[in-house]
C-alpha cells in the first residue's frame, strides 16, 4: 500500500461501528493526529485502542499550526487529520492546511468514510442528482432568504443547530409557504429521525418539543413557477402599465397568496 505524508480521515457521525478498518489502521500508524477537540477524539481512540498522540487543530489556531505540521512532515513524521465527526473539510477546518501542503509538494490523500450529507441524501426522495450544499446557514433572516432565493431551482442542503431549526423553518416558510423540506436528525444514532413533508407540517412536528442532535436539512427545489405561469396574463398587464418588477411581485403575491420572491424570480427568469 502506498504511503502518504498526510491523511484526511473521516470518523463516525454517530455510530462508532461506521469507522473503516483502514481508518483505524491509519490512525494507529501515523505519528500525530490533528484534531478539533482532543477530548472528543480521545473517546474514539480509546474505543479502538489507538495510542497515537493528538495535537489540536481548529479554526482558532488553524493558520499557526500550518508551519508546525509542515516542519514535522519534513522531518519524516506522518500526520492524520480528523474532525469531531464525519469527513474533515466539510464545515470543518483543514482547507488552509491542505492548500499549503500541496504548495510544499507534500503528498496528501483522503480516505472514504462517514459524511452527514451523503448519509442524509441517500434516504430522502429527490427528482434529480443536482444539489447545492451551503454548509451552516447564516444567522440573519435576510441572509437566509437571499440564499434560498439563490438556490430556489436546486435542492439546497444545509446544516443547522437544534436550537435554531424552528426559527430557520419559519423564515423559509415566510417566503416559500408551499415548500417541501427534509430534515435529518441524530443520523446513525439510536434516535435517528429523517422526515420529508410540507414545511408547515414539519414546523408543527418540531414545535413544542426539545430538538436534540446534529441537524442536516434540505429545501426541495421550487416547483411553483408552473403555478405562477397561470397569472402570466395579469403580469403582462401590469408590465404594460409600467409597474416595476418589485411592485408586480408585491401585487401578485398579495392578491393570489404566492410568495413575492417566487413571483420576482419568475419575472427575472422570463425577461
| Overall number of domains | 3
Which fold does the CATH topology of the largest domain refer to? Answer: Cobalt-precorrin-4 Transmethylase, domain 1
Rg of Cα set: 23 Å
Approximately how much helix is present in the residues? 40-55%
CATH structural architecture of the largest domain:
3-Layer(aba) Sandwich
User: Which secondary-structure class do the elements indicate?
Assistant: alpha/beta
What's the β-strand tally? 10
Kindly provide the name of the CATH class of the largest domain. Alpha Beta
Largest sheet: 5 strands, parallel
Question: What would the average pLDDT be, to the nearest integer?
Answer: 91
User: Which stretches of 5+ consecutive residues score pLDDT under 50?
Assistant: none
Task: Give the overall shape, derived from the CA principal axes.
Answer: elongated
H-E order: EHEHEHEHEHEHEHEEHEHHHH
Q: How would you name the CATH homologous superfamily of the largest domain?
A: Tetrapyrrole methylase, N-terminal domain
What is the terminal-to-terminal distance?
Answer: 57 Å
Biggest sheet strand order reads 3-2-4-1-5
Overview of this structure, please?
This protein has twelve helices and ten strands. The mean pLDDT is 91. The strands form two sheets. It has a five-stranded parallel β-sheet with strand order 3-2-4-1-5, with helices on both faces. A five-stranded mixed β-sheet has the order 6-7-10-8-9. It folds into three domains: 6-114, Cobalt-precorrin-4 Transmethylase, domain 1 (3-Layer(aba) Sandwich), CATH 3.40.1010.10; 117-219, Tetrapyrrole methylase, C-terminal domain (Methyltransferase, Cobalt-precorrin-4 Transmethylase, Domain 2), CATH 3.30.950.10; 225-269. The longest helix has 13 residues, at 62-74. The termini are far apart. It is of the alpha/beta class and 271 residues long. It is 41% helix and 17% strand. Helix 6 (141-150) links the parallel strand 6 and strand 7. Helix 6 crosses helix 7 and helix 11 packs across helix 12.
